[in-house]
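User: Please predict the structure of the protein below. I'd like the answer in structure-token form so I can feed it into my own downstream comparison script.

Assistant: Understood. Taking the following sequence of 162 residues as input:
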Amino acid sequence: MSSAPSDSDILHASAVAIDGQGVILLGPSGSGKSSLAARLIEAYDAALIGDDRLKLSRQGEQILARPHEALRGLIEMRGLGLVRRPYIEEATLSLAVALVAREVVPRMAAADYFSHAGARIARLHLHAHDSATPLIIHTALQTLGAMAAKNNGFSNDGIYEI
């Protein structure tokens, strides 16, 4: 488990909201955060929260994400440049996605969490450029909604009822 820096609420990450559920995309520069955010926007009519830098805060047991002032409504399209997109000012995060190399993506999601200021959300480890990644994120949001009353995590046996 990892957490965002406790001394700052600005994090190098991207985020979108799908049907009102915020998804934070985590990874080093060049890992595909912006590309995946753009694919989620197109595939699921997701709303851009922010790209490259986010402001995180805790409200009760929830983590809120906001765009960084200097980057509101901008998303990087590598090879093209910055593109202005509609955005939302704030969303509650429901899922974290750690972007990893294809060879370390697990076959089944284990119980794992992203923490910020003592609040936590479930975290998946996915490869940004796999064609199924947007679908996996969308399905995970549906699953988390169905399991939220239990433990806001993933199934121990890797089987989901949606």
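That's the full token string. The radius of gyration is 15 Å.
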